[in-house]
Amino acid sequence: MPITEVVSDAQALTLSIIADYAVPVERLWDAYADPRKLERFWGPREWPATFTRHDMAVGGFSHYHMTGPDGTVARGWWRYLAITPHQQIDLEDGFADEHGTPNADLPSMRMSFFFESTATGSRFRSVTHFPSIEAMEQLVAMGMMEGMRSAMSQIDEVVADLTTFAAERGTDAQLLNDTTVRISRVVRGTPVQVWRAHHEPALMQRWLTGPDGWTMPVCEVATTVGDRYRYEWASADGTQQFGFEGELLESHAPHRAVTTEQMIGTDGPATRNELTLVPVQGGTLLSIVITYPSKELRDMILGTGMTTGMEASYTRLESELGAA
């Protein structure tokens, strides 16, 4: 059990929890930076979490839900206020309704996470600031303290895992719900480098070509919200071609971009693609959360071997960044 101290201060309206871990502080930090790891401990053991958004940058948001043993779903959100890498995260934490909208009927809190190196590994300190004594009493009565104890007791298992989320792993696809998939890959490079690689046409045409034997003759990039993009690929022998087009909905360089995507020549509804870039050990965690219009389309696209082609592209991208 890593928790060493719990202090509730009704006068200061704070709840502080301190925990010690026998791992470097960088590995502990990455447990919060990587949504795949965060899902394995945020929330009580009986209420596992799923993060459908996690752009850990100042001004960014995380959206998540926890599912209870009987299928009950509780939703929440974070808004990042300040981040000092490997030292501190300040955020606002609140509840959400079934649509993901902040729930005004329940209080929000300000939370500060502190990370520091120790002689035996690292120490984590969480300080929750409540807006009033009534809010503090309400949230404690709802089981907040027990939930945090349960959540933090699971971190040991996550930070001890050196293989599941290692930078050496290839592209992974994780089903978040019936229509949403998260594609994850640690790319050896900085977020600025990886962002540039997704926005400079000449560079994109060198790496974003999927399996060997394909080229990218058309690369029209959207740079301003509202702009449209168009990408086309062709086999080297000229016998096959396909492409995608869409609109840039959000852009927050170098952390997050949201686009629609539709195959050229089709009339069906588009997907929504959310790209986030977060620095982690070994490089940049690239995540793409793709929301499909239906489960059937999701399964059909995944069945084409999409992640195999993406892995070939990301391997090529790392070679490009290494040569830069």
Which labels suit this protein?
single chain, 324 residues, alpha+beta, Alpha-D-Glucose-1,6-Bisphosphate, Chain A, domain 4, eight-stranded antiparallel sheet, globular
Reading the helices and strands in chain order gives: EEHHEEEEEEHHHEEHHEEEEEEHH
- What name goes with the CATH superfamily of the largest domain? START domain
CATH hierarchy: architecture of the largest domain? 2-Layer Sandwich
Number of domains: 2
Determine the CATH topology of the largest domain. Answer: Alpha-D-Glucose-1,6-Bisphosphate, Chain A, domain 4
Sheet bearing the most strands, described?
8 strands, antiparallel
CATH class of the largest domain: Alpha Beta
- Beta-strand share of residues: 35-45%
Shape: globular
The chain-level structural class is alpha+beta
In brief:
This protein has 9 helices and 16 strands. It is of the alpha+beta class and 324 residues long.
Q: How would you describe this structure to a colleague?
A:
The protein has about 325 residues and is α+β, with helices and mostly antiparallel strands. It folds into 2 domains: about 5-160, START domain (Alpha-D-Glucose-1,6-Bisphosphate, Chain A, domain 4, 2-Layer Sandwich), CATH 3.30.530.20; about 170-324, START domain (Alpha-D-Glucose-1,6-Bisphosphate, Chain A, domain 4), CATH 3.30.530.20. Helices cover about 25% and strands about 40% of the residues. It is built from 9 helices and 16 strands. The strands form 2 sheets. It has an 8-stranded antiparallel sheet. A hairpin with a 2-residue loop joins strand 15 (about 270-280) and strand 16 (about 285-290). The chain is globular, with a radius of gyration of 21 Å. The N and C termini lie far apart (about 45 Å).
